[in-house]
C-alpha cells in the first residue's frame, strides 16, 4: 500500500512541476515578446526621427476578435467605455496581445523550439541572468517540460521497490519518515531511513517548514538502550 501511495504521490508532484514549468514558460515568452517589441519601436522612432501618428498605433493590452464577414455583431458599450458586450450570430475567435506578438515573431519562435543561435542570444539578453538557463531549455522544444522528471521517476520507483518492506514497517514508528519521503518524492530519490543523507534531508526540510528537526540516529540509539537487558532501568 505504501509503495502504491508513493507512486501516486510522485506522479502528482511531477504533474505539478510540469504545470509550473508551463506557467514559467508563458511568463518568459510574454516578457521577451514585450521587450522585443519595445526595442523594435525604439529603432523605428530613431529611423523616422519621431514617434508614429497616434491613429496608426495600437496600445497594449488589446484583444482581436476574428469572425466571418457574414456574421452579424451586436455591440453595446457602457458610458464609461470600460465594458463591452458583443453578441454574435456565428462562431468567432478571440486573440490576446500575447498571442498576436508570438505570431509576429516577437518571441523568436521559442514557443515552438525553433530559435536560431543569434535569436537565442538576443532572447537571453531580455531576461534576468538567473533565468537564461530556462531560455536555453525552451529553445530545444517542448521536451524540456519533461526533462529530469521521467528518468528520476523510474529510478524512484525501482529504488522504492527494493526498500519497500523497510518503509512499510518503519513508517508508523518514525513520523519523520513522512517528511523524508516527501523530500525524496520531490527530488526523485528514495533513501532508507537509516541513511545519514535522508536524516539530513529531513532536517533541512523540517527547518524550512518551521518544525523541530528530528534525528533518526538518536531514536535508534534510544531503541538499542531499551532493548539491552544489561542497561539499568
From TrEMBL:
One of its GO terms (cellular component) is transcription regulator complex. One of its GO terms (molecular function) is RNA polymerase II transcription regulatory region sequence-specific DNA binding. The keyword Nucleotide-binding does not apply. Gene3D superfamilies: Transcription factor DP. Residues 217-233 have a biased composition (Acidic residues). Belongs to the E2F/DP family. This is Transcription factor DP C-terminal domain-containing protein.
Amino acid at each position: 500500500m505504501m509503495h502504491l501511495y508513493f507512486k501516486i504521490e510522485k506522479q502528482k508532484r511531477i504533474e505539478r512541476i510540469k504545470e509550473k514549468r508551463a506557467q514559467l514558460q508563458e511568463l518568459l515568452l510574454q516578457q521577451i515578446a514585450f521587450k522585443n517589441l519595445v526595442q523594435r519601436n525604439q529603432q523605428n522612432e530613431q529611423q523616422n526621427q519621431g514617434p508614429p501618428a497616434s491613429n496608426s498605433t495600437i496600445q497594449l493590452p488589446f484583444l482581436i476578435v476574428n469572425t466571418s464577414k457574414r456574421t452579424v455583431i451586436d455591440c453595446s458599450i457602457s458610458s464609461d467605455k470600460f465594458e463591452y458586450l458583443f453578441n454574435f450570430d456565428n462562431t468567432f475567435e478571440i486573440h490576446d496581445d500575447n498571442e498576436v506578438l508570438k505570431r509576429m515573431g516577437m518571441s523568436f519562435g521559442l514557443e515552438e523550439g525553433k530559435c536560431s543561435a543569434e535569436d537565442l542570444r538576443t532572447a537571453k539578453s531580455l531576461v534576468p541572468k538567473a533565468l537564461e538557463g530556462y531560455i536555453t531549455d525552451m529553445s530545444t522544444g517542448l521536451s524540456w517540460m519533461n526533462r529530469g522528471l521521467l528518468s528520476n521517476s523510474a529510478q524512484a520507483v525501482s529504488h522504492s521497490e527494493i526498500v519497500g518492506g523497510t518503509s512499510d514497517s518503519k513508517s508508523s514508528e518514525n513520523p519523520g519518515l513522512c517528511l523524508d519521503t516527501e523530500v525524496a518524492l520531490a527530488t526523485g530519490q528514495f533513501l532508507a531511513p537509516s541513511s545519514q543523507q535522508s536524516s539530513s534531508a529531513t532536517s533541512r526540510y523540517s527547518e524550512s517548514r518551521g518544525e523541530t528537526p528530528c534525528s533518526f540516529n538518536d531514536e535508534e540509539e534510544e531503541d538499542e538502550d531499551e532493548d539491552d537487558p544489561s542497561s539499568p532501568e
